[in-house]
Amino acid sequence: MATAAPAIASAPRRYPALIAFAIAQPLGAVALLVVIAMALAATFAEVVAPYDPLDIDFGAMLAAPSPDHWFGTDSFGRDILSRVIYGARTALAIGLLSSLMGCTLGAALGIASAYFGGKVDMAIQRVVDIFLAFPIIVLALVVVAILGRLPVLGVDMNLVLAIAVPIVPKVARVIRSSALTIVTMPYIDAARTAGYSHTRIILRHIAPNVAAPYLILFTAFIAQAILLEASLSFLGLGVTEPTPAWGLMLSGSASDFYREAPWMILFPGLAISLAVFAFNLFGDALRDYLDPKFKT
Question: How far apart are CA 224 and CA 213, in angstroms?
Answer without folding.
Answer: 17
